[in-house]
Specification:
This protein is an alpha+beta fold and 332 residues long. The chain has two domains: 146 residues; 114 residues, no CATH class. 35% of the residues lie in helices and 17% in strands. The strands form four sheets. It has a four-stranded antiparallel sheet, with helices on both faces. The chain has a three-stranded antiparallel sheet with strand order 5-9-8. Helix 2 packs across helix 4. The radius of gyration is 23 Å and the shape is globular. The C terminus is likely disordered.
Length: 332
């Protein structure tokens, strides 16, 4: 088989690049080419210096890209606020990033070792690779290290997600060994989960105030995402969902749950009417009626349409908020 070469061209134009590509693609194909498109990142040379493990591989890429961008923005603002941002990055813009699925090659480990894997297991080996301009790797590394140090990703992706640097032939032997073990555990993580879609949630990031029952002072806020990750349980006491992702404002919500019959039954009960389910479940965790109603009013639709065109409504009268605990101020 002849080797394939992917050249890169840089030029400026006044029209939409898609128009130029559509006009050139046909002649390019007649000349023997077969791959002609606009790069996602507008830079000459890119690298994948970071990889995300224990984040469900089959999630929507655009959604994960938006969540990671929001984490980078939060990290940049946090470093400016506590004066930890290096001087050379003080006036720098947020680095452009892209996420793609892929299997990172481990030094010294041939790909033929996995040829006996099933197709599902081969796909489960894939992880999310963070790609950025090679010139912006230092600034991106500072931001990601701040995200890990301050545990900013815990509130969105949970405490199990791990962002780490990739390895190469110059990496220490211990780092390569840990990378191999992490890749194996990541495959098991993907194989044990399945993604389902939740109905009726309009704003996953909507939150309500958490107040101290003794003084009545506000001690924090708790979002619907944090509430579901922390307090949505199965009958055996284990968490029902491992991840939650919303595809844009008021978009569909993807919930990653264990690939078991118990989790499937629990999700079906929850998905019939999320507002009514939470209204009766959260009091078991000392959530006050005022807090529950305020959270549901901000985050859940009043009516949910199910298959067959049947609509159900939530009979909860919504008021203000509160929470009967002083132990936690967030779900992390």
């Amino acid at each position: 088989m002849d080797p394939s070469v992917y050249p890169t061209m840089v030029f400026s134009l006044d029209v939409d690049p898609k128009i130029i590509i559509s006009r050139v693609t046909h002649e390019f194909g007649r000349a023997g080419g077969f791959y002609f498109r606009k790069k996602q990142l507008q830079c000459e040379e890119t690298m994948t210096p970071f990889i995300i493990y224990f984040l469900y591989t089959f999630n929507d890429i655009a959604t994960l890209r938006g969540e990671l961008t929001s984490l980078l923005e939060e990290a940049l603002q946090g470093m400016k606020y506590d004066f930890t941002l290096p001087d050379e990055f003080e006036y720098a813009f947020l680095p452009d990033i892209n996420i793609r699925r892929g299997v990172l090659k481990v030094p010294g480990q041939p790909g033929s070792n996995f040829r006996d894997y099933s197709r599902e297991m081969q796909e489960a080996r894939r992880a999310h690779l963070i790609k950025c301009d090679i010139k912006e790797i230092p600034s991106c590394a500072f931001l990601i290290n701040y995200i890990k140090e301050m545990k900013l990703a815990v509130c969105i992706w949970g405490g199990h997600t791990h962002i780490t640097e990739t390895v190469d032939w110059d990496s220490p032997k211990g780092d390569v060994s840990r990378f191999v073990r992490m890749s194996q555990n990541h495959t098991n993580y993907n194989m044990s989960l399945v993604s389902v879609q939740v109905k009726g949630i309009t704003d996953l990031e909507a939150s309500a105030e958490v107040t101290c029952p003794e003084s009545g002072n506000v001690i924090g806020r708790l979002s619907l995402r944090q509430t579901l990750l922390k307090y949505l349980k199965l009958t055996d006491g284990n968490p029902m969902c491992a991840e939650l992702h919303q595809r844009g404002p008021q978009g569909p919500v993807d919930m990653v749950i264990p690939n078991t019959s118990l989790a499937e039954c629990g999700f079906e009960m929850f998905n019939k009417q999320p507002a009514g389910y939470l209204y009766h479940i959260l009091p078991k965790f000392d959530a006050s009626d005022l807090f529950i109603k305020s959270l549901l009013r901000r985050s859940v639709a009043a009516k949910v349409e199910h298959s067959g065109g049947v609509e159900t409504s939530c009979p909860v009268k919504l008021k203000t908020c509160g929470f009967k605990t002083t132990k936690t101020t967030s779900a992390s």
